[in-house]
Design brief:
The protein is of the alpha+beta class. It contains two helices and four strands. Strands 1, 2, 3 and 4 form a four-stranded antiparallel beta sheet that branches. The protein is globular and about 40 Å long. It starts with 10 loop residues before the first strand and ends in an 8-residue tail after the last helix.
């Protein structure tokens, strides 16, 4: 899917994974996005919180492929 109609533009993304409540067995890393603004990403991140979920900080990437690469380096937390 092409999200960038008028040249490359950085979009906002969030990573998440579902875990066991004791912190063991982290699931696969998944992307949430893209979002046009930081505020949109922040709202969606907040709406998708759950006790058994870890999320990354909101980060920028100009394509889904680059976001997938960055996701591999992002730290996850329950905050």
């Amino acid at each position: 899917m092409n999200y960038f109609l008028f040249g490359e533009k950085s979009m906002y993304w969030v990573g998440y994974r579902v875990i066991a409540l004791d912190g063991s067995n982290p699931g696969s890393k998944c992307l949430l996005g893209p979002f046009n603004s930081y505020e949109s990403a922040k709202k969606e991140k907040s709406n998708n919180r759950a006790r058994d979920m870890e999320q990354t900080a909101i980060f920028k990437a100009d394509s889904e492929e680059k976001a997938e690469l960055l996701l591999k380096t992002e730290q996850f937390s329950r905050l």
